[in-house]
Every structure is written in C-alpha cells, then in structure tokens.
Amino acid sequence: MKLHLSRPVLSDEKIVELFFARNEQAIDETDRKYKSYLVKVAYNILSDRDEAEQCLDDTYVRAWNTIPPKRPDSLRAYLATVIRNCALNCYRARSSEKRIPSSLTQSLDELDFLIPDQTEDSYDDGELSRTLSEFIRSLDQRRMYIFMSRYYLSRPIVEIADLLGVSRSTVNKEIAAIKTLLREKLESEGFEI
Amino acid sequence: MTRNTFIDSMSAIDTEIVELFAEQDAKMHEMRSKRKRRYTLASVISTCACAVLVLLVMPLMYAIFGGANAEAPESDYFSNMDELHMRLEYTTLYSAVDLDSALSSSIHLSYSSTVSSNSKPDGIFGPVKEDNAAGEAENIPLQLRISTTYANGDNTDSVRYYIIFNVDDVDKSYIAGYEEQGLTKTVNGVTVHYCHLDDGLFSSQAKFVYDENLYVINVDAGGTSHNLDPYLDVILEEIEKGTY
C-alpha cells in the first residue's frame, strides 16, 4: 500500500515566481494555499457560496493576467483585495434588487450612526480614505486587527473572537470603543455625522 | 456619507495597511491552528488520564465495596397478592388488603440477591427465601410496598402498606414516643403504634411487628378528616383470626 503524504504549501515568493514563469502550477498552488481563505472573504460579503466560488475563479484569472508585471509584496493581501473588490461588485449589483443578509450588511448596519444618509454626498472618497488610513494607523495592533477584520474583510464577530482567542463580548466591547474613536476622528476632520 | 462611500473608501485605504493586516492575519490563523492543536492534544491527554484513573480506581472500589451495586436491591412487581405470597412462600397479613375495590394498586417487592441478575433465565426468578440450607443462592426480601388508592366520597385516599422484612435493622426509638402519648393498642398480643399527623393533609400511620416483620400502614386521607381506622382494622382482624 502506498502512502500519499500531502506536499507542504509553497511560500508566496515561490508562487509568485511560478506566475512570472507563466507556469499554470501557480494557480494550483494558490488554490491549495488560499482557496478557503479567499472564499471566506467573498462569502462574508455575498453570503452565497456559488457566487463566492465564481469570484474565486475571477480572482485567479485576474492574478494570472496581472502577475507579471505586478509583483505583490504580499500575495495574501493582493488576492484578498482582488476577491474583495470582485465580491463588492456582485454585492452592489445584487443589493440594488434586495437587501443581502451578509456579514458585510451587518457590519455596515453597525456603522449606521456614521452613515445614516442614503443619498449621494459630496465627500471625496480619497479624502475619506486618507482619514480612515490615519485612523487605522492610530489604533493599537489589536484594535487595528479587529477594525480591519470587521470593516475591511467583513468578518463575523464570532470568527474574529475565534481568531483572537477571546469571547464575542470582548470583541463587541472593542468594536464599540473603536466606533467612538472613529466618530471623534471623523468629526475632528470635518465630516458631518 | 453613504454606505458606498464608506465601502469605496475602505477599498482605497493604504496598501501598506492592508499588507500589514494580511501579515497579522496570517499569524492569527497560525496561532488559532496551534491553539486548536493544543486543545485537541489536551483533550486526548485528559481523556486518556480519565480512562487510566477509572481503570486504576475501579479495582480499588471493587475491593472496598465488593463490586458495583453488589448491595443494591433487586425488585419485582406483582399483579396480585397470591403471586407475591407464592414468591415469599408464606402468607402475610396483607392478604386481607382489598385490592378489588382499589382505584389503583401496585405491589412491589425489593430483595437482595446473591444471584446475578444476568443469570435470570428469561426474567423468571425463583422464590424469595430467607434461608437456604442447601447453600444455594439466596434471595432475601427487604421491603414490600403495596400502593393503593380508594374512593373516599368525592375524594381519594392514598394508602401504602409496607413490610420491612429486616426488622432488626429498624430504629425502634419511635416506640417510646408513641407509648408516652398513649397511641398504642394491643390486638391479640400484637402492640400497634399509630398516630395522626396535623399536617393539613390528614396523614396517619400505624406500625406493628408481627411474625418478625415490621408492618407499616400510611394513609393520606383525601377528605376532611383522618381515615386510618378502616384500613388498619381490616389488617388487625387478620391478627385476631390468629391464623398466621
């Protein structure tokens, strides 16, 4: 009887080298290493497994088409950004028809006090992005992780708690504190709340 | 500010932050995996430790207590008094209990046995004996309980008849209290102690020793007064007959 031992996953650098060598194994290795992570990112936004898988395929195609020339410093971050954008496009298309009960919707509901106005506004996205970047940098490591998990990757509270090894109520308390700080930051920068 | 503005702004935050977060996230996933592995390992170790403890302690417990449930009584239910008396191989005073007019009844005998319950052939068990000259397995009766209910006007009396067979083990200090209060009567040489409890439930109790067994009769009357006598007298009449 033969024993089939699973191969160790390749490092990000080696996977990027495979992309540069136009070796299709790059997709296989990416899939082996990041599939479940990326599907979760899309699923948190869409709450639909099939659409999340579709976004995963689109992400692989985009990675194949953009690497090279692009050489991402962090393959994980790059792929997460690509699949997030893809999932957000699906989300917008679907949410124009109906409310999507996803983790993204829940996380946005939490920020209702910041974004109550449903009409278009005159804020510059770039200005808000800069303010948000400054705000995130000002947070300590743990709060930064919670903020990014919740509002960038739209992770459910329970998953964040599991990753941090703390209770859900601890995460909820941290989120409440973060929201207060965010409100203060936005007000101090002249954003109308 | 709209939700789309916020989403777009979050998408456009510094790449450096996203990369820093991705790095932190990878570490968190790794730490969670380690925690889970540790937890799994700890669970396995705990389970093994418990198993070893049980294996070590069980023989000790067996040695101290003579085996699990070695002293726990066995019990049987009977559908009528004849069946019970056949099992006991003698007749008790409770042959006078009127089960026919009872609204409900159950007859329950518990006994200790040196015969393993596993060795009972198809649930058929031999007579309960107090002695066994042949040195065979013994079945020693411990307690008989006959639970009955009878109509009492619009209400119901709950009557429980007991026999405690190992009467030597019974604490007899209660007798002095009964005798001091004159709650005794003697019927055909048998002293009966009885009492009526003022507990609002009209509960009564009678006790007497007959043929080396302690008889106890509890009556919870459903009406507005105690109602021990009708049930007790039937049994005492059996003593007066003196046929046992």
Q: Nutshell version of this structure?
A:
Chain A is mostly helical and about 190 residues long.
Describe this structure in words.
The complex is a heterodimer of chains A (193) and B (244). Chain A has 193 residues and is mainly alpha-helical. Chain A has two domains: 12-98, Rna Polymerase Sigma Factor, Chain: A (Orthogonal Bundle); 104-188, Winged helix-like DNA-binding domain superfamily/Winged helix DNA-binding domain (Arc Repressor Mutant, subunit A), CATH 1.10.10. Chain A is 68% helix and 0% strand. Chain A contains nine helices and no strands. The longest helix of chain A is centred in the N-terminal third of the chain and has 22 residues, at 25-46. Chain B is α+β, with helices and mostly antiparallel strands and 244 residues long. Chain B is built from five helices and eight strands. Chain B has an eight-stranded antiparallel β-sheet, sandwiched between helices. Chain B has two domains: 3-65; 74-241, no CATH class. Chain B starts with a helix and ends with a helix. The longest helix of chain B has 51 residues, at 15-65. At the A-B interface, helix 4, helix 6, helix 7 and helix 8 of A face helix 1 and helix 2 of B.
Outline the secondary-structure elements.
The complex is a heterodimer of chains A (193) and B (244).
Chain A: H1 12-20, H2 25-46, H3 49-66, H4 75-95, H5 103-110, H6 125-138, H7 141-151, H8 157-164, H9 168-188
Helix pairs in contact in A: 1-2, 2-3, 2-4, 3-4, 8-9
Chain B: H1 3-11, H2 15-65, E1 74-78, H3 81-88, E2 104-113, E3 139-152, E4 155-164, H4 174-180, E5 184-187, E6 190-197, E7 203-210, E8 213-220, H5 229-241
Antiparallel strand pairs in B: 1-2, 2-3, 3-4, 4-8, 5-6, 6-7, 7-8
